[in-house]
Amino acid sequence: MTVAVLLGLAVGSFLNVVILRLPRMLDHQWRAECAELSGSPLPAPEKFNLVVPRSRCPGCGHAITALENIPVVSYLALGGRCSACGSQISPRYPVVEAFTGLLSGYVVWRFGPTAAAAGALVFVWAMIALAIIDFDTFFLPDDITLPLLWFGLIVNLFGVFTDLRSAVVGAVAGYLALWMVYWAYKLATGKEGMGYGDFKLLAAIGAWLGWKMLPLVILLSSLVGAAIGISLIVVLRRGRDVPIPFGPYLAIAGVIGLLHGAAINKYYLDLF
Prior knowledge:
Radius of gyration: 20 Å
Number of strands: 0
Number of helices: 9
């Protein structure tokens, strides 16, 4: 489990890069495609992807060294500030790293050193990245949701979390469930209540967990969303008309379903 925690810390550091850079990469890609279609292509940009350029301080541009990039430890050693200019470093970076490390350790403890644990780690890491990206940008990138969906089907080809039939039905039902909610809301109000990325995310969750877990995931995501939404309105005085992304709540519900969904479903069914 210690190895899983350390691996999770390292992956959490990488997830911070994905969360920050992937939306920017996609935004530039879309702008470049639009400019090309309009006949006025953009000038060639500086190479920018998940690997290059090296991470830098947003305040002074100081390149982060290897010693300054040790998950959590470097943040604490530097007192949460840039070593060059002393500007504040967002505490979200070490929080994401620590949370990913602890959750990774819990996943391995829950499943043991098995193929299920390896698959669950990939699922959980993707959920963390998607939740924060959607929280920041109201966008769930296909670059994560679609590979996650296909990987879930491949994993369940071997019956790791459910049988293949249930996984395929789960993917289809997950997409259609929110697709129908989307159109029902739009026809009733003339407004869009959610994005297509939410459909794809629930489809991916269905591919991993199977169709029997979808009602629980939808219920949990609604309860978590309602609780957080009410808290934002009451505590932070956030307006009722301010949109809230649904992806983070689906991601939280998906992780709960993966780790404890079978036990929750059994408990619920036993009550009746």
